[in-house]
Specification:
Blueprint: H1 2-25, H2 42-59, H3 61-68, H4 71-85, H5 93-124, H6 130-148, H7 151-160, H8 174-213, H9 221-235, H10 238-251
Helix pairs in contact: 4-5, 4-8, 5-6, 6-8, 7-8, 8-9
Amino acid sequence: MSIMSNRALTLTLALVFLPGILSAQEIQIPSINFGVQEAQNPEEVMGVLQVLFILTILALAPSIMIMVTSFTRTVVVLGFLRQALGTQQMPPMQVLTALAIFLTFFIMSPTIDSINEQAIVPYQNGYISFSQALNNAETPLREFMFRQTREKDLSLFLGIMKQAKPENREEVPTRALIPAFMISELKTAFQIGFILFVPFLIIDMVVSSILLSMGMMMLPPIMISLPFKVMLFVLVDGWNLLVGSLLRGFVG
């Protein structure tokens, strides 16, 4: 009881003397106010809308990165590789995702440089308007997506939109280009995944046939084939070949 009484007395004294201490030291405590004020001119409204738009873009940045960059193909191919090797959780998906992100930045660096030179720097210097900066930033991304998009996939979305065949790339709407680019990337990733599976599947079939001929039906074939698959992947320098193929697929 004495301990509880001492703590209560200390707390009471602190509450009593704290305002005096703060006033004696002249400590200024800031206050934060949130409110809506009437705009004096249209420029203030446009400035607020631009800030809201930029915050929205930042919130959607992960989705935008997946939709309009090389991340989709890269992460799907790396996932296929882990499944083909049969190494269960090795390498971890966090490692593969991190590798896919850094490869995406490497692949997209020319496009990012173009956006910086054509849109961000001129807008910061006041040479172009915000809407013009958006148009300038969209152009390099569209060029990148056009290089990787199949005409068949693009025609699918244009046909659903009931839009006439465009005469040039400028007439293709971005809302049709983005999904066409994504399904093209998925098809390419699945094609690469099939090629990755073939040599490892052959090793699994050979090991299974040998174990069956030896009457060792109770021994899981994957326990025997896994070291051979890992050894084959290391001997051919698989990481170098795979990453090099992915990079050349976008750069070439």
